[in-house]
Amino acid sequence: MGFVVEKLLLASPRGYCAGVDRAVQTVERALDLYGAPVYVRKEIVHNKHVVAELRKRGAVFVEELDETIPQGAVTVFSAHGVSPAVHADAERRGLQTIDATCPLVTKVHREAVKFARDGYTIVLIGHAGHEEVEGTMGEAPDHIVLVETEADVDALDVEDPSRVAYVSQTTLSVDETRAIIARLRERFPEITGPRTDDICYATTNRQAAVKQMAAECDLVLVIGSQNSSNSQRLVEVAKDHGAESHLIDNAGQVQDAWLQDKRVVGISSGASAPEQLVSELVELFRGRGVESVEEFEVVREDVRFMLPKRLRQDLAATSA
After folding, report:
1. Rg (CA), the chain
2. In 10 A of CB 67, how many CB atoms?
3. In 3D, which of 72, 144, 74, 75 has the Cα closest to residue 108?
4. In the beta sheet, which residues pair with residue 99?
5. pLDDT, average across residues 184-209
6. How many Å apart are CA 320 and CA 317, to the nearest integer?
7. pLDDT tens across 249-299, in order?
8. What does the pLDDT look like over 221-236, one tens digit per residue?
9. How many Cβ atoms sit within 10 Å of the Cβ of residue 136?
10. How confident is the model at residue 178 (pLDDT cuts 50, 70, 90)?
11. What's the distance, Cα to Cα, between the start and end of the chain in Å?
12. What is the pLDDT of residue 1?
């Protein structure tokens, strides 16, 4: 049959969350205010396109605060958060730091510190090596153990089973953490957790939209980078709910073979993917004769986060 795509469904909400919007704006405003170069520890958000655009404007991305950053330089911490050791290192080197950590990640850091202070073993549900996990674990390295699966929970050996608490990485799948938390409760009936769920509102909403949309699609394309945890989860959610699904960086990566005999194609994007990439993907399909494009709205988002305090103060001072 070949190409028979008749309709596109656009998951809503999709794309930028408030934390990513704030982080990207932080680097843009810092470049406007202080001039290039502005140093950024790690990728500001997990999206190749965003990082490339900011690099063009004069942002310099570094893995660590090593000697490549000159003494006293303006340095931005990424949306994923950093450990206290990184803050201390920056202070020691006299760097002018602007912390673009997402406020929802900061909340998890605070929970970890509180539980550690109260003498709990903290179980962090997350993915090893993810920057957010490294930052959170750095808050209380002697008190935190990482679990990625229910099997990890079964293998846990804790000092005092009556003093166990859990926190989680904000970008995981809602279903994934639900199963792991249930297993934790089975093993440690007295376990305590955060007052409100750690999975961020944007992660939850984007997964809910894909979950409902996938039921009506033959194929779901998710725009996001390979190192974006929340984008990877969207692909998994689509597959779990009956649709073939692929993660792509941009429209140029769509393969003809995926489109064979697919009538309805759903499109979503991870929390760090700019809307421009979605528009380009829609144009690709319009160019092939697809006329029906519908928003598939599940929930409305109106969350906004203020820019980091230091940046707000410096911006206010220049406009005074």
Report:
1. 21
2. 8
3. 144
4. 77
5. 95
6. 5
7. 999 999 999 999 999 999 999 999 999 999 999 999 999 999 999 999 999
8. 999 999 999 999 999 9
9. 30
10. very high
11. 65
12. 64
Kindly state the tokens that stand for 231: 């984008």
Chain-centroid distance of CA 218 in Å reads 26
Strands (E), the chain: 7-12, 38-41, 59-62, 74-77, 96-99, 121-125, 144-147, 164-168, 219-223, 244-248, 264-269, 292-297
- Quick one: three-class SS letters along 272-318? CCCHHHHHHHHHHHHCCCCCEEEEEECCCCCCCCCCCHHHHHHHHHH
Map tokens 């699609």 to a residue.
217
Q: Which residues contact 275 (CB under 8 A, 6 or more apart)?
A: 15, 16, 269
Query: Is the torsion defined by CA of 91, 95, 97, 101 positive or negative?
Result: negative
Write the pLDDT tens digit of every residue in 111-121. 999 999 999 99
- pLDDT at residue 196 above 90? no
Q: What is the identity of the amino acid at 125? A: I
Give the Cα-Cα-Cα angle 19, 25, 31 (nearest 5 degrees).
145
Could you give the residue numbers annotated as active site?
Answer: 132
Instruction: Show Cβ contacts of residue 209 under 8 Å, excluding neighbours closer than 6 positions.
Output: 11, 12, 13, 14, 268, 296, 297, 298, 299
- 62 forms beta bridges with 41
Alpha-carbon 12 to chain mean position: 17
The set of residues, in sequence order, having a beta carbon less than 8 Å from that of 240 and lying 6+ positions away, is 175
- Taking the CA atoms of 37, 39, 42 and 44 in sequence, report the sign of the dihedral they define: negative
Inter-axis angle of helices 48-57 and 18-34, nearest 10: 10
**Rounded distance between C-alpha atoms, residue 280 and residue 285, angstroms:** 9
